Amino acid sequence: MPVDFSSMQSVVVLTGAGISAESGLSTFRLKDGLWDNHAVDDVATPEGFLRNPALVHQFYNARRRQLSSVVPNLAHATLATFERNFTGEFLLVTQNIDDLHDRAGSQNLIHMHGELLKSRCIACRRIRPVAMDMTPDSLCPDCGQQGALRPDVVWFEEMPIGLEQIYSALACCDLFVSIGTSGNVYPAAGFFQEARRAGAQTVELNLDPGEHASGFDICLYGPATKLVPDFFQL
Ligand code: BV8
Fold first, then answer.
1. Which pLDDT score is estimated for 6?
2. Which of 19, 80, 110, 152 could form a disulfide with 105 if both were Cys (CB 3.0 to 4.6 A apart)?
3. Does the pTM of the predicted model rise above 0.85?
4. Which of 40, 41, 157, 220 maximizes ligand 1 atoms within 8 Å of its Cβ, making it the mutation to test the pocket?
5. Are the beta carbons of 205 and 220 closer than 8 angstroms?
């Protein structure tokens, strides 16, 4: 179902784990997903990290190691190409902590749940690129503190990144496209309502209907590597 992009001034796209599925990265809530094999409270909360930092580091180390063996897929590439060609404002907000949008060339990109390839020191708060495994014995390269490094990701009950910029983009967008997310996690799951409130057309591109499918103007279902190029007419 083509959309007339020529009349559009501002497009906001939200992505979730589903856009990286065809690159070989696990999603969270589908069968055999990340949450099937790990208790969320144990690996994606500040309390879980305090309780057992070694387990949390193992969970993120395994996901970080996997990044070197996957590449962006056609859906990631399509969004980067569309952004280059689009004459209006384009913002890509991802819930994903992988680097596939970055490697595909997306520029105006917010990782609202943080990034797997960054570490944060609880002691000195410095954020740095990280490619190696971290353990509770890792030393902070800035302040030297042992055991203070954590993945620079947003866990449950922590404040997502870039919300002010995201909400101001949603308040004036003509089109909001949600790709590969189940719509289970807030505040991302509520972005489509903010866009609707601004009078935007809302679109869900997903393998199957998300939690809020009935709230979108256009819903198209199938694999992202087919839906996204078709929708963005590239
Ligand atoms: C917040 C860590 C306050 C990083 C994640 C009590 C206290 C505080 C907050 C809360 C609370 N109770 C509830 C909340 C809110 C809470 C929340 O939403 N809970 C839910 C469970 C009800 N949210 C928070 O805590 C957030 N912080 O609220 O701060 C605040 C906020 C605003 C203003 C003021 C204060 C923090 C949320 C971030 C949590 N961190 N992970 C990591 O390990 O990755 S959540 C985790 O879920 C990931 O980040 C992931 O990105 C996110 C969403 O999952 P999806 O990406 O949608 O993945 P999923 O598997 O679910 O779905 C995949 C979809 O893809 C499916 O629909 C499938 O059909 C589709 N698909 C599959 N294959 C394909 C495909 N589509 C297309 N093609 C394919 N091939």
1. 87
2. 80
3. yes
4. 157
5. yes
The answer to whether residue 113 is catalytic is yes
For ligand 1, say whether the CB of 156 is within 6 Å of any of its atoms: yes
Q: 3-state DSSP call for residue 12?
A: strand
- Say if ligand 1 is within 6 A of residue 28 CB: yes
Q: Tokens 């559009």, residue?
A: 8
Residue 131 is which amino acid?
A: A
Mean pLDDT by runs of 10 across the 234 residues of the chain is: 84 98 89 78 96 96 96 98 97 98 98 98 97 96 96 98 98 98 97 97 96 94 97 88
Sheet of 127-129, strands arranged across:
127-129, 114-121, 149-153
Query: Strand 10-15 relative to strand 89-94: parallel, antiparallel, unpaired?
Result: parallel
Give residue 2's pLDDT.
67
- 143 C-alpha vs ligand 1 centroid, how far in Å? 32
Give CA–CA dist 191/156, Å, rounded: 17
Phi and psi based region of residue 150 (left: phi greater than 0; alpha: psi -120 to 50; beta: remaining): beta
78 Cα–ligand 1 center, Å: 23
Sequence-ordered alpha helix ranges (H) in 67-147: 74-85, 100-104
Residue-level pLDDT at 52: 96
What pLDDT score does 82 carry?
A: 97
DSSP single-letter state for residue 2: -
Instruction: Indicate if ligand 1 lies below 6 Å from the C-beta of 228.
Output: no
Count of beta carbons in the 10 Å neighbourhood of residue 12: 28
The pLDDT of residue 70 is 97
